[in-house]
Amino acid sequence: MSPFPLSGSTQDDNDKPDVFRVMIVDDSAFIRGAIARALEGEPTLKIVSSVSNGEQAIKSLQRDPVDVIVLDIEMPVMDGMTALPKLKEIDGAVQIIMASTLTQKNAEVSLKAMSLGATDYIPKPSSSHEVMAADDFKRELVEKVKALGALARRSEVRGPYLKLEEAKVAPKADDKTGKPVPPAAVGAVPPRVGIVLGAQAKKEVILRKDPVIKPSIIAIGSSTGGPQALFRVIKDMGNGLPQPIVITQHMPPSFTTILAEHISRQCGVVCCEAKEGDVLKAGQYYVAPGDFHMLIETKGTQGPTVHLTKDPQENFCRPAVDPMLRSLVRVYGKSILVVILTGMGQDGMKGSAVVTEAGGSVIAQDEASSVVWGMPGAVAVAGLCSSILPIGEIGGFVRQAAVRGRP
User: Fold this and answer.
1) CA distances for 125 relative to 29, 138, 335, angstroms
2) Which of 119, 272, 314, 327 lies at a CB distance of 3.0 to 4.6 Å from 320, suitable for a disulfide?
3) Taking the complete model, does pTM exceed 0.85, yes or no?
4) Is 369 assigned a catalytic role?
5) Is 238 contained in some domain?
């Protein structure tokens, strides 16, 4: 007998708007069990279904609505990439986490999946040894499922049959397609509710009055939802900036290599995964490699160079934004512009405090355009920001500051 429920919902579940519903999709029973065990015991999470391929996932979602799907890439019958758009068609608000092993091929596919509607990714354990030692895997998975479950509940684009479920009305299925058929009264059913607000949502945000000066370096930190945010911001920042740009995105090895390649290709800029000893050059973008903190140091007459370390994780992350920002202050003093984009947790807050104490400037992505307003929310409510902007305005703002300084 399975140690977790495979499908179905109950009246009791529907009465708990703070319980997030999860589907696990993987052709390995071992992996499905590992993911289920990682989520078990969390009172705000309920595994509604566990299936072995994309076709089964589609049928399951048509029967039983969920908030988050953990989706494997390679599966028989129907793989994850084929299933992804079909699942989003059923429910545009369902949040999909791609689960993949750490290979360059899977990193490439995962980034493509995010351009097609997946929200995030997670490296999955490949052996029982990894599972037993994977406290980080469990913590990361639980945090992501909770954050994205809350995002799904806030959405105004949930499928009609999900709104029916909130009204405690079981949708009827079409005999031919098996898809739910909403009745005419569906428009009268209110959207799903149950928003989970972080502490920062309840605090007043006060902007710093000091102006943003023309910096000598630009630093960007991001996490959940970060790749798409980075593509937008960097495309708007463009080429020809008189400063180097350093980026820490929470990602594992292989993924950061592919991220740098995608930035170069999609944004038309020179971007690389940083290597030990790289000398920073104006106008070039440097991505911290997975599993290394990226620090900037000055060595002799070479000027600022990259130093990679495997110092302990900070904020449960390596690479982390905080150590990068602290190192920049030692080299650049106040001549730093920091951009904190969408992401879970508070990484970047302590480092941004060091930057502002030195006289540098911090801007953050606003809550409305963030996938998760954790990292940008943390710097915002701490009073560290000179500006809080929607994603569509950040690149232009940074470019103006970089080229002319802010008026």
Assistant:
1) 13, 10, 42
2) 314
3) no
4) no
5) yes
